[in-house]
Write a structure and sequence with these properties.
Blueprint: E1 3-8, E2 11-16, E3 21-27, E4 32-35, E5 41-49, E6 59-66, H1 68-76, E7 82-95, E8 101-114, E9 131-132
Parallel strand pairs: 6-8
Antiparallel strand pairs: 1-2, 3-5, 3-7, 4-5, 5-6, 7-8, 8-9
Length: about 150
């Protein structure tokens, strides 16, 4: 981990630059599951989080999850389900159809917790899938310029 020297009132200290995002909310649309060219699963979804400044206007956070957990999210989550997500924020860019550069900020999830009651589907969701999934992030494939290759 990279360290940054900072000078504090109490002398010199080392401070770590952290990129950790934690949040919970309801899925604002169904999970979209895709496959990379090498066959790895990647799922994307958006959650509506409560905005502490304007309670009538939620913040929408785009999330990406990889591997078997992406498949579980696609299988068991749907619009309106409540989830807790922990991960890191990432901003990437791409060229739009109009030639303009577009930027996307999203959370690369390393933990997705299913928080909605199971309801009628209680028998369909295995216990190892419910709750915290604590998984390692899949390695990201890079193109010749060192940019991530994403299937969308």
């Amino acid at each position: 981990m990279r360290q940054q020297e900072t000078l504090c009132f109490h002398g010199s200290r080392k401070r770590y630059n952290l990129n950790i995002w934690n949040g919970s909310g309801n899925l604002s649309k169904d999970v979209e599951l895709r496959q990379t060219t090498s066959g790895k699963s990647v799922a994307s979804f958006s959650i509506a989080c409560r905005n502490s400044f304007d309670k009538d206007k939620p913040d929408y956070v785009n999330c990406v999850v990889w591997g078997k957990h992406a498949e579980n999210c696609a299988k068991y989550l749907s619009k309106g389900k409540k989830v807790g997500v922990t991960g890191r924020m990432q901003t990437r860019s791409y060229d739009g159809n109009d030639g303009k550069k577009r930027y996307v900020t999203e959370v690369i999830a390393n933990d997705v917790e299913f928080l909605s009651p199971m309801g009628e589907n209680k028998e369909q969701v295995p216990s190892e899938v419910m709750g915290s999934s604590n998984f390692k992030e899949a390695p990201v494939e890079l193109d010749k310029n060192g940019e991530p290759i994403l299937p969308f």
